[in-house]
Design a protein that fits this description.
Its cofactor is heme. By secondary structure, the chain is of the alpha+beta class. It has 18 helices and 12 strands. The strands form 4 sheets. It has a 4-stranded mixed β-sheet, with helices on both faces. A 3-stranded mixed β-sheet has the order 1-7-6. A 3-stranded antiparallel β-sheet has the order 4-12-9. The protein binds protoporphyrin IX containing FE (HEM).
């Protein structure tokens, strides 16, 4: 009996905790921020590379103090699994305090992105319908139309040598037009180049991402005065709000006079208008989030996919052959591979809702944990030859088994990205058309990486020659 007791005591004594997690030298007040200041070892817009480098020395779990916040970072897929499996039904993501503050005071409504707890749960009910297969299919024809418009646009936007310079900028127009048919259910004509509202929206969408990022990183000076980041967030929000509100008024009138027509034509907007938990302002906030959620992320994923395909003729030809088939399995594998190598989110973050054991450490409730998926998914430990773009690894015929938590480009669990299905469909529809109409040649020897602009985007312009095929 005595023996058992002392064994128990020994086990207790060796339990490592948060304070034992490795870290780097830090300084009072600034913590580890010095590493990211001008002249420092790392750059904040290259956080993924910094995390990769630090984990080489400290191992797969370590802590940093950045911008006043204590972060626990893991690059380990098993620990990521534990994190998500213990997140509960109301996962807590660190809020975007500036956006939360601005919306709460101006509209008394925060939306699904910055919200948490019961507030988040209410808003989540407004985005869940996006994951429905019937809803997704109801937009397929309109997605085809937008993709056709992009093909026509591409033919005229190429320079005299057939090169589309800085593809990302053009794909942003596609992304905005593509999401607009779903939300707000009014098609912005970004690709026909004569819609002034569309060009305001393009500028405001970019400013919004910059404003979000500038108010998110670094100390919250916006609480004291309107910083340039806060002003950008506020003014872009005002523009997008006005446009969304205008279209919502129109669709609301249709809903009041002929709900069945809206139900048939605009399944997503119908689900929002019909959701009794949501106030009018809640619906505007959600519309803005669904609209904005898919812009940078969509354009980036498409730009990077075209970049990888233009770089490798063999893979491109295989994708083109697949584009002639019905199920488009290889094209889907290409998208997965792009999202593995170039995920738009650097990390998936959660605040622990209970004490949780991650690796050797018992981590207390309320700790902010970042599962750095952009590092994990490019690690040879999880994917053979990880730096090689190899869509075949995702095909059924391939026998390689993957850790299910090694590549999580859309997050995981009750808070995972609600746009996943819709956007995956949008990707294959456009890629199919591009590959059947053009052969792609990369211009220059650009070695494209990624930088943070809230989401991660290509770090340099991607220019591609689009040569007409005979299809
Ligand atoms: C390649 C395209 C996209 C990627 C890679 C992506 C990725 C993500 C990720 C990683 C999250 C966080 C998930 C988590 O915390 O577990 C997220 C959340 C979200 N995404 Fe996406 N997304 C994409 C497109 C879209 C689209 C098209 C929409 C709108 C239709 C959208 C709307 C949202 C919203 C509203 C959230 C917040 C969900 C919540 O907090 O409950 N996303 N997305």
């Amino acid at each position: 009996m005595k023996n058992m007791f002392s064994t128990h005591q020994t086990t207790q004594a060796i339990q490592k905790t948060l304070k034992d997690v490795p870290t780097l030298k830090s300084f009072p007040l600034i913590g580890h921020t010095y590493l990211f200041l001008p002249g420092g070892k790392y750059k904040s817009e290259r956080l993924t590379e910094a995390v990769k480098d630090i984990s080489k020395n400290l191992g797969p779990i370590f802590k940093l103090n950045l911008g006043g916040a204590n972060l626990l970072i893991t690059t380990d897929a098993n620990q990521t699994r534990t994190l998500f499996r213990s997140e509960g039904l109301r996962p807590i993501r660190p809020p975007f305090p500036a956006l939360y503050y601005y919306r709460k005071k101006t509209f008394n409504s925060v939306g699904v992105v910055p919200g948490n707890g019961e507030e988040w749960h209410k808003f989540r009910s407004g985005v869940i319908p996006l994951l429905g297969t019937t809803l997704m299919q109801s937009y397929a024809e309109r997605q085809e139309d937008v993709a056709d418009s992009f093909i026509s646009y591409l033919r005229t936007a190429r320079n005299k040598d057939g090169v589309l310079e800085d593809a990302m900028e053009h794909l942003l127009l596609f992304a905005i037009e593509a999401i607009s048919v779903v939300c707000p259910g009014h098609r912005f004509n970004c690709l026909s180049q004569n819609d002034s509202q569309a060009s305001d929206i393009v500028t405001a969408s970019k400013d919004f991402m910059v404003g979000m990022y500038e108010t998110f990183i670094g100390p919250p000076l916006w609480k004291l005065f309107k910083t340039s980041g806060y002003k950008k967030l506020e003014s872009s929000h005002q523009i997008i709000y006005r446009v969304m509100k205008g279209h919502l008024e129109t669709i609301k009138q249709q809903y009041e006079t002929n709900p069945e027509a809206v139900k048939y034509e605009q399944k997503y907007m119908y689900s929002l208008l019909n959701n009794k938990k949501l106030s009018e302002e809640d619906i505007v906030m959600l519309s803005m989030e669904v609209f904005l959620g898919g812009i940078d992320t969509t354009a980036t994923t498409l730009a990077m996919t075209l970049y990888y395909l233009a770089q490798d003729r063999e893979i491109q030809d295989k994708a083109r052959s697949d584009a002639e088939t019905e199920d488009l399995k290889y094209l889907r594998a290409c998208i997965k591979e792009t999202l593995r190598m170039a995920p738009t989110a650097g990390a998936n973050s959660r605040i622990l809702v209970e004490d949780t054991t991650l690796g050797d450490y018992l981590i207390p409730k309320n700790t902010l944990v970042l599962a750095f998926s952009s590092v994990t998914s490019s690690d040879d430990q999880y994917f053979k030859n990880a730096s090689h773009y190899y869509p075949d690894r995702w095909m059924r015929t391939n026998n390689e088994e993957f850790h299910k938590f090694a590549s999580l480009p859309f997050g995981y669990g009750p808070r995972m990205c609600p746009g996943k299905k819709l956007v995956e469909n949008e990707f294959v529809i456009l890629l199919k058309k591009i590959l059947l109409n053009f052969e792609l040649e990369l211009v220059g020897k650009a070695d494209v990486g990624m930088v943070y602009r809230m989401n991660r985007i290509p770090d340099k312009p991607i220019s591609i020659k689009f040569v007409n095929t005979n299809h």
